[in-house]
Design a protein that fits this description.
single chain; mainly alpha; 2 domains; globular
Length: 117
Amino acid sequence: MAIGKIAEFDLHKDDWKLYVERLEQYFLANSIASNLQVPTLITVMGAESYELLVNLCTPEKPKSKTFLELTEIMTKHLQPKPSILAERYKFRNRKQKPDESIAEYMAVLKRMSNVVG
């Protein structure tokens, strides 16, 4: 019996890097061998995400690549490296919103400070 559950990746809402981190922990918790990581990824990622992956891998098939190669392909497409100057500008101009608590504001600043790193 599997420990935990991995939901489909939603291209419009989910963070790919966080999804991969959760999936790697799922692999560890369930002792999934490295030769089963690609089939597991393809099975759990969902139809829309898999279609995107197929398009990004063309002319090859995703099953011919390693888990690391597939996650890097998706990362480059979904979360390209941001411009350092643009991110610094956004960070310096981020003001606390009237309805935002100090804790929420600090969490946003911490997240923004990790974007470029």
